[in-house]
Design a protein that fits this description.
With 354 residues, the chain is mostly beta strands. Helices cover 12% and strands 53% of the residues. Strands 1-3-4-5-6-9-10-11-12-13-14-15-16-19-20-21 form a 16-stranded antiparallel beta barrel. It has a two-stranded antiparallel ribbon with strand order 7-8. A hairpin with a 2-residue loop joins strand 11 (200-210) and strand 12. It is globular. The protein starts with a helix and ends with a strand. 42% of the residues are buried.
């Protein structure tokens, strides 16, 4: 009897361990590069192609097609181990899961997600922007089509501003219908539990495939705690033609102290099974309102040309080389420190996903 109980206990332990292994996954990307610009040569561990992240995700089958899931994700630098890559409270926020921390429940048709999430506006806009050139191409391109995303956001932790790619206290509903996905997102409450004013944020998107073209349209409306308002609309997509991947995006609206429009175009080509080349062009015609009430064009970020090579060593590891040139009069994005006196940036890097 005793041996039977021990055997049953061992089987139960094995079953629970197997369930944990199937239900919870550790994932991430390590992306490190050597960067050179006019200021010199330096090491970048936060990711200039894939972005360096670390996270946990888990799913439980509740039966009847219903599933519950969670995501906890942080940005990390493989240069010094610091938390980076934005998130609630800004790039230097000390919280462990500074990018995503959310719960979701749903089925194949409808999903509801609560907590800190990537904006559906950003997620959908990337449909026409992401390619071989990676972060070095799409971050400035997203700035171009979305007017720089303002530089601040509504969510705060003791007054600290949030990176515009991520928002806290969100409620998101996604509905799949006839091959298209419609997503609506809003920030819950005008204040934090400590009484700090958050302003307001809402976003929406629709994505789908039409005649072999992956298309996406997105928008966001935001009012900062300071009273500044932003509203931007984008449309974009990607498709394959004669072995080429063509992608593009266009945005228009007003973003805090900016108004105008921007666009980005890109193309990727597989030279061989392992080697691919990509090109991204981004152009901004957004106007920046300055102190005297006048406007100055092409302030964020002007135009940028980025070319890149990507060599896949395996399904999880690749090396890359990128070069970017700028026409902006001021600094541009976090991933490309061009503009001003820095008119070009080159980098060589290695990325591994797990």
């Amino acid at each position: 009897m005793r041996k039977t109980q021990v055997a049953l206990a061992a089987l139960a332990l094995m079953a629970s361990t197997a369930a944990l292994a199937d239900g919870v996954k550790v994932y991430g990307t390590a992306d490190a590069s050597i960067v050179n610009d006019k200021t010199g040569t330096f090491f970048a561990g936060a990711g200039n192609n894939a972005g360096s992240i670390f996270g946990f995700t888990g799913t439980e089958d509740l039966g009847g097609g219903l599933k519950a899931s969670f995501t906890l994700e942080t940005g990390v630098s493989y240069g010094d181990g610091q938390l980076v890559n934005g998130g609630y409270g800004g790039a230097g926020y000390a919280g462990l899961f500074n990018r995503q921390a959310n719960l979701a429940i749903g089925n194949e048709s409808v999903t509801v997600k609560l907590g800190q999430q990537i904006s559906t506006f950003v997620d959908a806009s990337l449909t026409g922007l992401v390619g071989v050139t990676g972060n070095a191409g799409f971050v400035p391109a997203l700035n171009a089509v979305a007017g720089g995303l303002g530089g601040t956001a509504t969510s705060t932790v003791g007054g600290a501003s949030t990176n515009a790619f991520f928002y806290a206290d969100l409620a998101t509903v996604s509905v799949n219908m006839g091959g298209a996905t419609v997503t609506a997102q809003t920030q819950i409450g005008g204040k934090t539990a400590a009484g700090v004013n958050k302003g307001s944020y809402s976003a929406g998107s629709i994505t789908g495939n039409v005649a072999g073209i992956n298309l996406a349209a997105a928008m966001f409306n935001e009012e900062l705690s300071t009273g500044l308002k932003g509203s931007v609309y984008t449309v974009g997509g990607n498709t394959q033609v004669a072995g080429l991947t063509l992608r593009g995006s266009y945005g228009s609206g007003s973003s805090y102290t900016h108004d105008g429009s921007g666009y980005a175009l890109g193309v990727d080509y597989p030279i061989s099974d392992a080697l691919a080349v990509g090109y991204t062009y981004a152009k901004s015609s957004w106007n920046n309102t300055v102190a005297n009430g006048n406007t100055r064009s092409d302030d964020t970020p002007g135009s940028q040309n980025t070319i890149g090579l990507k060599y896949s060593m395996s399904k999880q590891t690749f090396a890359y080389v990128t070069y970017s040139s700028f026409s902006a009069d001021t600094a541009t994005s976090a991933n490309q420190t061009g503009g001003g006196t820095v008119k070009s940036v080159s980098m060589i890097g290695l990325a591994h996903s797990f």
